[in-house]
DNA sequence: TCAATCCTGATTGTCGACAATGCTGCAGAT
DNA sequence: ATCTGCAGCATTGTCGACAATCAGGATTGA
């Protein structure tokens, strides 16, 4: 599994960068519980640094919406609720649909072949039935990551991979929601890649949007069984 | 003209907040030229503050992509190029299309009436032919702002109004590009509002995407007459 | 008993100084 | 003449201390 969504660790970057990465991972994976208050002095002491770099890291976490800050009050880890999760899926539907369209227009052939190999590998993993669904989920993110990357739209990439994907991972870690949609999702992935390989941007966008909408509905159904919104 | 895209000035917020607003405005309007290097000591001295709040403001400007920073080297104001501008319009097409769809589903009736009044006012301004195109452009942003706000998707709102709209304004100020598309744009705006009022989300999205795509093409035509990409 | 007020404690915002890193110009060698 | 290495300088990153602000609890009055 390629560590596609995880930035490679630059060893001698600045302290603030390192703390930022550590905190982001801790928040996403739940080591720092959602909704908990963040005290600058105690965190600085725990990581053995000063408050300066820590504050910079907190600012960056705020900019990607993982923590909320109020002046003179402090910072809290974001508290996820179902409405915001559904909002994210609406944004993903729009952006990744466009990403699929652009990928169909401009993605290099080699990158498409690589995604095909990736999907073949996923197919094998799912065939070995009860394999860790965790890796299936990671593979799902990896697939979406490559589609976005393939089109070469840097801003699209930033929004999705620096902000939204971390939120999606955070939800999975917190709610432990493993989708039993793995097989359907894989099938949909293959259709999308076929459309991209055929350079059919309109179809690729339509399929991607339907795919994400299906994920959204599966989540909405599980969150509040009585309502779809 | 409502100051929709300009946050109201909180008088006694933190220093960093105030400097952030001032710098953002200065960059967007060109007072600080694009591509120029930013020196922390000289800027701190000019605004009469310390480097601490200034660094926080720079970090926030970096998060909305108005400045670029490299460790141990410094910060520069972003240098706009035509490719990135076109990228932004792709993102806007996707996001605002979704925003129009959501607005058609959930925007309150009163807000729709308000937009209708706004458009009527714009129509009057355009009728008085050579009225400052500046205000027409501001009115255009105001229209889009209200559509996004009407749907109530907070994340969609953040991405568009905190990041992309500032970039769009920056381009206009820098290149002084006043669109002679004002009449066409107004007509398209009216169609979009009609679709929203009719609660036809699919049509609203389709019209909004076509509208933004038309703006994109108009810009692409002016930027590099020989290519549309 | 309840509400309003004040006080206290802690936390955050701000500042100036020090250390570390990258860039620039010059001298010297090939 | 061009390239390489070094030294100096400027800028950024980091740190500890001080001031400003807010949350919570105790106290007092009705």
From TrEMBL, chains A, B:
Taxonomy, superkingdom: Bacteria
Pfam families: FCD, GntR
Residues covered by the HTH gntR-type domain: 13-80
SUPFAM superfamilies in the cross-refs: GntR ligand-binding domain-like, Winged helix' DNA-binding domain
Keywords (A to Z) from UniProt: DNA-binding, Transcription, Transcription regulation
Residues forming coiled coils: none
Name of the protein in its database record: GntR family transcriptional regulator
Key word S-adenosyl-L-methionine present: no
Species this protein is from: Marichromatium bheemlicum
């Amino acid at each position: 599994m390629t560590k596609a969504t995880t930035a490679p660790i630059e060893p001698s970057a600045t302290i603030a960068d390192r703390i930022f990465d550590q905190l982001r991972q801790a928040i996403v994976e739940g080591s720092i519980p959602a909704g908990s208050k963040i005290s600058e002095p105690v965190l600085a002491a725990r990581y053995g640094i000063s408050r300066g770099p820590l504050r910079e890291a907190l600012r960056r976490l705020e900019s990607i919406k993982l923590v909320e800050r109020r002046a003179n009050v402090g910072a809290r880890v974001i508290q996820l609720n179902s409405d915001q999760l559904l909002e994210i899926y609406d944004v993903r539907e729009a952006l990744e649909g466009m990403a699929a369209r652009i990928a169909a227009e401009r993605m290099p052939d080699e990158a498409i072949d690589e995604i095909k190999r990736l999907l073949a590998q996923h197919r094998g993993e799912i065939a070995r039935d009860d394999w860790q669904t965790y890796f299936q989920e990671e593979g799902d993110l990896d697939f979406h990551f490559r589609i976005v990357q393939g089109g070469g739209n840097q801003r699209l990439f930033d929004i999705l991979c620096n902000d939204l994907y971390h939120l999606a991972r955070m939800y999975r870690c917190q709610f432990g929601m493993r989708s039993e949609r793995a097989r359907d999702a894989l099938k949909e992935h293959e259709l999308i890649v076929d459309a991209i390989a055929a350079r059919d941007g309109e179809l690729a966008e339509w399929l991607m949007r339907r795919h994400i909408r299906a994920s959204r509905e599966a989540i909405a159904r599980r969150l509040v069984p009585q309502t779809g919104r």
